Records
---
Amino acid sequence: MRRLLATAALGTIAFLAIGGSAPAGAKTRTTITVRSDSVTVNGAPVDVSVKVTDPEGRPVSGALLRLIVPAEFMGEARDEIVGEATTDDAGEAVLRFAPAQIGRIEATVAFWGAHGYAPSSATVAFDVKRPATAYEAVPVGLQARWARSYLILVPVVSVWITYALVLWLTVRIRRAGAHRTSSKKVVTS
Amino acid sequence: MSVQIATGAPDGDRLEHLLERSKAPVQPGAWGIRGRLLVAALAAVVIWGILAWVWQLKHGLAVTGLNDRVSWGFYLTNFVFFIGISHAGTLVSAILRLSHAEWRRPITRLAEMITVVALVVGAGMVVVDMGRPDRLQYVIMYPHLRSPILWDVLSIGTYIAGSLLYLYLPLVPDLAILRDGHVGGRIRQRLYSVLALRWHGGPEQRRLIGRAIGIMAVVIVPVAISVHTVVSWIFGMTLRSGWNSTIFGPYFVVGAIFSGIAGIIVVMAIFRRVYHLEEFITEKHFRYLASLLLVLGLLYAYFTLSEYATVGYKMQVGDASLLSALLTGRYAPYFWTFAILGMVVPIVLLALPRTRTIRWIVTAAVLVNLGMWLKRFVIVIPSMALPLMPYEWGTYRPTWVEWSITAAGFAGFALVFMIFARIFPVISVWEVEEGWEAEDAESFAPVEAPLAAGATILVGEPS
C-alpha cells in the first residue's frame, strides 16, 4: 500500500517572531509531520505516525496529540476526536483509529500547545474502502409464510395449561386430605 | 398407576435426628447473635441499594455510568448472572429426580430455593435498568411478539411461576411436619396449616403429589433451557460484533448450569456449616456435584474456544477490534481473569484427585461464580462500547449508584435465602426419609418414579 507523507504547517500559529529574536513570553513554533497509509478499509484500524519538532528540528516530547475527523450525526456536521496520544522523547507518537465511514476522510492531527510550545496541526487524508464481503447482511426477519409471531405463544400457553393441571392436582391433594385414611408410608420415587 | 406401600421404617433415631436438624433453622432463636448481626448487615446493604435506586429514579439514569453508547452495564450483567444461577435448582433437582439419582435427596430443596430467589433478584435487575419502570406494564399492554425482549418477559415469567410450583410441591409434606410439630407462633402455624393442604400422607395424597412433582420435573427442564436461550437471544438476535453468534443459545445454557451448580455448592457449604448438616450433606454430595461442575466447566471451555476461534479466524471488521480489545486491549484483564481464575483453575482443582476435597471444591465453585460474573461483564459491555459510527470506543464507568444496587442485589439474595430458610426446612425431610426407606427395604419392588408419573399424566393411564 502506498505511503503518504503529509507534512503540513496548516494552522501553525506562531507567537514568536520567525527566525528573529523572540519576545519575552512568546511560544516556540512547532511542526507536525504525519505518516500513514492513505488507503484503508472501513473499520480496520489504521496507525497514524506523528512527529512533532521545533523550528531547529529538535523533537518535542510530551505533546498531547489529537486525531480529529469530520463526522455527521443526525444530519449535523461536527468534528469528532477519535484518538489521542502523547509524543515520546523522540517527539513521536502513534494515533490509531478505525474509520467507520466509506470514502475520503480528511483527518486533522492537532497539538493544542503546551509547555511553551505553540499549537500546530496537520492534515492527513484516507481513502476508506468498503470491506470485501460476500453479501451484505440486512436484517429482514423470518420470511416463511407460516412464521407468524403469535406462534411464539403456543409453547408458552401449553406450559401454563400444564401448570393449571398441576394446580388442579394440588386442589385434589387438599380434598384427599379431608378424608383422612391410613397414614402408612408410601414411596413415590 | 400403581403405588408401592412401604412396610419397612427407617431407623427411628436417625429420623428423629433428621427432623431435629431440619427444623433447627425454623425454631425461635435459630439465628443467634451472629446470625442477627448478619441479617442486620445484609438488610442495611439492601436498604442502601433501595435508596440508591430511589436516587436513580429521581435523577434518571444520568446518575449511572450508562450512556448513549454503553446503555447496558452492571444491571444487565447482574441480570444474566442471576438468571444463570437460577438454573441450579431446576437442572440439579429436576434432572436428578428424573434420572433417579438417589443422592440428590438432601440437596434438592436448597437447589430449588436458589432458583426462586435468584430469579426474583435477576428479574428485579431488569426493572432497575429501566429509566422509567412505571412504563413496565406497556410490555404487556402493547406486546410486540417479534421482540426477543417480550420473549424474555414471557419465558422468565413462566419460569418463575413454574419454579415456585416446583419448590412448593415437595415442600407440602414437610410443611405438614412443621404444622403437626407446632413449630413457630400463631401466624406461622396458620401459614403452615394453609400451605400444607391438609396433608396427612395418605396413599391418595402421595399418589397425587407424585404425579404433580413428576409433571413439573418434566415441564420445568425445557422451560429452564428456554429461559437462558431467550436471554442469549437478546444479544444473539442482533448484528452487533460479539453477540452475532449462532451458538449463543447453548453457550449461555451451559454457562448457566455451570454457574448454577457452583452456586449450589457454595450455598450447600454455608448451610452445612451454619446448621450442622454434615450428617446429611456429606462429602459425597460435594464430590458428585464437583464431577458435574467439572463436566460443565470443560463444556464451557469448549464453547468459549469455539466461539472465539471461529470469530478470530474470520476476523470480520468489527469482530477484529472487539477481539483485540478482549484479548490484548482494555478488556483483557477482565477476560483473562475469567478465563484463568474462573475456568482453567477450577477445572484443574476439580480434576485433580488431591484437590477433590470439600474445601477445594468450594474454592473452585467460588472462583467459577466470580469468573462467570466477569464473563457476563465481558459479553455485555465491550460489544456495546465498540463504535458502530466513526467515534472513539464508548466508555463505561459504573457509579456509586450501580455499585450500591449491585451490592444490594447480592445482599438481597443472601437475605431472602436466610429468611426463607428461617421459615421453611432446607432439607426435604420426607424425601430423605423415603430414600432411607428405599435403602433399608431391599425387598421392595422398583419404586415408582416421578418421570413415570409425569409420563402417565401426559399420555394417559396404561390400560
Note: Chain B has 18 helices and one strand.
---
Amino acid sequence: MRRRIRLAATWTALSGFALLFVYPFIWLLSASFKPRSEVFDHRLIPETFTFDNYLRVWQEAPLALWMANTLLVTVLAAVAVTITSAMVAWGFAYFRFPGRGFLFGIVLATMMLPGAVTMIPVFLIWNDLGMVGTLTPLWAQNLFGSAFYIFLLRQFFLGLPREPFEAAKIDGADNWRIFTRIALPLCRPAVVVTLLFEFQAAWTDLMRPLIYLRDSGTFTVPRGLKALLDQFGFGGEWHWEIVMTASVITTIPMIILFFLGQKHFVRGIATTGGR
Amino acid sequence: MPPTRAKVPRRRSMQWIETRAALLFISPWILGFLIFTLWPVINSAYLSLTDYDVINDPNFVGFDNYVQLFQDPKVGLALRNTFVYLVLSVPTHLVVALGLALLLNGATRATGFFRTAFFLPKMTPPVAVGILLLMLFNGQSGLINGFLGIFGIDGPAWTTDPDWVKPGLVLMNLWTVGSSIVIILAALRAVPQELYDSALVDGAGWWRRTLRITVPMISPTLFFLFIVDSINALQSFTEAYTAFFGSGNTTYSNDAALFYAIYLFQQAFEFLHMGYASAMAWLLFVVIMVITAVQMLVTRRFVHYEGGRP
C-alpha cells in the first residue's frame, strides 16, 4: 500500500515537471498562430487563429535561403568531422607505434584549451585566405577531426575484439579496407552518435556565424534569428510574433532530429557525459 | 648465417610499415593540430603583447594589455558577473538534475516518455532559448510573472532590473538541464541493487538510502558534471548575448548580463581590439585552470570511487 502511494506521488510529480518542461514549446507554438495584439494573452488556444505570421516571416526574411545555408554547413560539418575523426581514432586504436601515448596525450590536452584562445588567430587565418563572409570557415576545420569525437570513437574501437582484423589481414586486406569494411561498420552506433552530436552543434551555433558572416544572404538560421530579434524586437517595432514564429521554424528541425535519433542521442549522452 | 640475424631488420621494417600506416590515418589530426591549434596558440600569445586592429600591422606594446586588464572596470565587472552566474547556476543545475533523475529512477513505467519531455528543451538552439527568456520573463507581460500574479505575487522585472537579470538567466537555463538528467540516470541505473536490499533489511528509510548509498555511489558522475558545468558557465555566451546585446540593441543592453565571453567577443569583433582580446583570452584560460584546480582539490575528498581512486 505504501509502495503504491509512493508510486502515485512520483507519477504526479513527474507529470507536473514534464508539463513545466514542455509548456514553453506549447506556449511558443500557440503564440506563433496569434495576431500581434494577442501574443502575450497566455491563452493556450489562440482566440484569433492566424497563419499571417508564417507568411509574413517568409516575406520579411530569406528563411528558405537561411535554411539551405544551414543545411549545407551542417551536413558538411557532420560528415567531415565523422570521417576524419574515425580515421584518426582508428589510427590511435589499432596501430602500435612509437610516440602514440604522447600524441594521444596532446589530443586530450587540446580539449582543455578554451575556444577563446584560438578564436582570434583562427579568424585571422580565414581572413588571410579571404574566406571571411563565406560559409567555409563554419565547417572546413572539421576536415581535420575534432578531439572530443576522436576520443569517443577511439574508446569504441578499443572495445572491439582484434580477431576479425587479424583474420582480414591474413586474407590480404590492406589497412584502408580493414578500416572501411570491418572497423567502421562494427562501430556504427558511435558513428551515428558523432553525426548527430555534430549536426546539432552546427545547426544551433551562433558564435561562429556572428564572427564570419556579414550579409543576410549568407546567414545561417540562428544568425538570421538573432538579426530578426535585433530588427523586430530591439529595433523598436516590437513585432514579437515574427520573432516567435522564426524561433518555431528554427527549433522544429532539431526536434525532428531528436525523434529520429532518440535512442542514439540518449545512449551517446549517457556514455560520454555529453559534450 | 644464423636465422635470427635475418629476422631483426625484417621486424624493424614491419614496425616501420605499421608506423607509416598509423601516421597516414592520424595525419588529418596532425595537420589540424599544427594549423588550427598550435599556430593559433603561439600567435595568440604574440598578439596579446601587441595592439592590432586587423587593418594595420601589429604594434608591439609589451605587457601593456595585461596591465590594462587590471585597470579596465568592465573586465572586473565581467569577471564578477561570470563568477556570480557560476555560483548561482552550477549548484541549482546539479540539484535539479539530481532531483529529477531520482524521481525518474523511482518511476516504474513510462520513464521513456518523461525522459523525452525533460530532454527535449536541450535540443532548442541557444538563440531561441535567449529569445524565450525575453518573452517568458518579461516583467509586464511575461508568462512567469503572469503565473506569479495568480498567487498575488508581483514578479520582478527579470529582463531589465540588474538585480534580477542573472537569476532569470539561471532559471531559464534550468530548462536545458535534460542532458545532465540523462547522465545521472545512467549512473543511478548502475548502482548495484544489493546495496539497497541490505539497507532495507536494516530498516533504512528513503532519505537515508539516498544520502548514504545513492549519492556516494554516483559521486564520480556528479563530480564530473560539476566540473564540466563550471567550465561551461565560465564561457557562457549565446543566451545572454542574444537576449541583452547585439546590433540595434542600444536601449536594452544590460551590463548585469555582460559575461566575460561576451566582453571578449565585443573587444575582438566589434571594437577590433585583437591584441587586448587575446590578452583577455589568456586571462580566461588562467581563471578556468585555477577555478577547476581549486574545485578538484576541494571536492575530491567527497568523491567515492568504487575499488579505489583511479
Note: The first helix of chain A runs from residue 2 to 31.
